[in-house]
Amino acid sequence: MKQILRLRINNQNYEVYAPIHKTLLEILREDLNLTGTKHGCELGECGTCTVLIDGEPVLSCLILPVAVQGRAITTIEGMADGIMPHPLQTAFAELGAAQCGYCTPGMLLTSKALLDQNPQPTRDEIKHALAGNLCRCTGYTKIYEAVEQASKT
Amino acid sequence: MLRLPPFEYLAPKNLADAAQLLAQYGDDAMLVAGGTDLFPNMKRRQMTPKFVIGLNALRELRGIKNENGNVVIGAGTTLTQISQSLNLSALATAAGLVSSPQLRNAGTIGGNLCLDTRCNYYDQTFFWRKAIGFCMKKDGDICLVAPGGNRCWAISSTDCAPVAVALDASVRLVGPKGERVIAAAELYRDDGMDYLTKARDEILTEIILPPADGLRSTYLKLRRRNSIDFPILGVAAAVRVAPNGIVEHARIILGAIASHPVQAIDAEKILIGQRLSDDVIAAAADAAFKPAKPMDNADAAYAWRKKMVRVYVRRALTELKEQN
């Protein structure tokens, strides 16, 4: 069953003709070429495919695009302001808060949602907010430090 | 890629339409709200409905309101929203301990209460299950946990159900023949496959909490990691203590040790009429430990999970003793 999906991603409107059972992750990567969103476990256990819907972090591997039509979807491609990186992206780069980098898009978007709601989080609040994003390089400390640095800029 | 099997998606505009669609398509249809339980299961081919009925557009299923002193929670309210509602006491605690922030932003209270039962031999990909031999819960006819038996031992792994039972909550079920309200405890059945008494054509629409009336409650969750993991033991406890310190009412409900939330009746009886002294708490914890029979089908050694029942019941009751 194919259908036209109307999606608003990074403040841009997209129309996609695709099977209804493709997940948002698959549509982003395979139909819209927005490959910044990574696929990890695809079962909701790793947080790598996190995107923001109306500002809230959710997992694109478990979302049907048909159910989020008309809502504001933000992917990692929409995080920078033109060529200006988001303060979180700058902080992640400056502090080396990425090792292999695979979890980074999800980490950045989840951190952005946190800072948008709570601009000065404590270390504990950062840990709780990022509790659904796994980093298999286990580089968590630098990620927490980068979020703290970004919260001060 | 682990992809969803093809299906047709139906988006009812209101509850009546949803109920009608469910009645029309019967066993070929399944409901989805947040999708955090159903979609992983579908990707593993544990479920392959021809029709998926999406409930997330139904505003009438969302929100928390007060009605005649009761707190009425729409089944489509997200776990994040519940976890931030402090007047829901232990239910907010349990909702806040489900999986991860991303899953709680999508997952709903109704979905968590109806969560599919879980088992190491069942929550695997189709390839894995085929390789080891299918179990009776899906595609096979034996139980790989207890092959000599004739029942399924998949585990009730919802965090919110033990709390809902401990708080004497009820749930509203809407179906083609009308609606009914049943106690949360009666929603569950001791059967890993047929674990809900909700009929397939009924929709769980509300959770109704009676007035707290001084009830103290808590929920403790055991798991390997402090995030993402399902419980391998959940303890929901609630007591009402008279001004003179005597326990008048007690509920201890164990989650994730059986196919349904288990009421530790003997432990409750020990508490009634007593003060929450260390000795009474230890005796109640012991009484809750005895009937708990976790099986070897979840994370961690099952003997250790059983031992932890005593520890967690003691901790929960100690917390209630200090709670005011």
Account of the protein in words:
The complex is a heterodimer of chains A (153) and B (324). Chain A is α+β, with helices and mostly antiparallel strands. Chain A folds into two domains: 2-78, Roll (Ubiquitin-like (UB roll)); 87-151, [2Fe-2S]-binding domain (DNA polymerase, domain 1, Orthogonal Bundle). In chain A, 33% of the residues lie in helices and 18% in strands. Chain A is built from five helices and five strands, in the order E-E-H-E-E-E-H-H-H-H. In chain A, helix 2 (87-95) packs across helix 5. The longest helix of chain A has 14 residues, at 104-117. In chain A, 46% of the residues are buried. By secondary structure, chain B is of the alpha+beta class. Among the domains of chain B are: 1-56, Uridine Diphospho-n-acetylenolpyruvylglucosamine Reductase, domain 2, CATH 3.30.43.10; 217-322, 2-Layer Sandwich (Enolase-like, domain 1), CATH 3.30.390.50. Chain B is 29% helix and 20% strand. Chain B has helices at residues 15-25, 38-43, 79-83, 90-97, 101-106, 109-113, 126-132, 160-166, 265-271, 278-289, 302-322, and strands at residues 8-10, 29-32, 51-54, 64-67, 70-74, 170-175, 178-183, 203-209, 216-222, 233-241, 247-255, 262-263. In chain B, a hairpin with a 5-residue loop joins strand 10 and strand 11 (247-255). The longest helix of chain B has 21 residues, at 302-322. Chain B starts with 7 loop residues before the first strand and ends with a helix. The model of chain B has no long low-confidence stretch (mean pLDDT 96). At the A-B interface, strand 4 of A face helix 2 and helix 5 of B.
Count of structural domains of chain A: 2
- Strand arrangement across the biggest beta sheet of chain B: 4-5-8-6-7
Biggest chain-to-chain interface with counts: A-B, 31 and 30 residues
Gross morphology of chain A is globular
Helix % of chain B is: 25-40%
CATH architecture of the domain at 217-322 in chain B: 2-Layer Sandwich
Overall average residue pLDDT of chain B: 96
How large, in whole angstroms, is the Cα Rg of chain A?
Answer: 15 Å
Largest sheet of chain B: 5 strands, antiparallel
Oligomer: heterodimer
Sequence of secondary-structure elements of chain A: EEHEEEHHHH
CATH fold-level topology of the largest domain in chain A: Ubiquitin-like (UB roll)
CATH architecture of the largest domain in chain A: Roll
CATH class assignment of the domain at 217-322 in chain B: Alpha Beta
Question: What string, H for helix and E for strand, traces the elements of chain B in order?
Answer: EHEHEEEHHHHHHEEEEEEEHHH
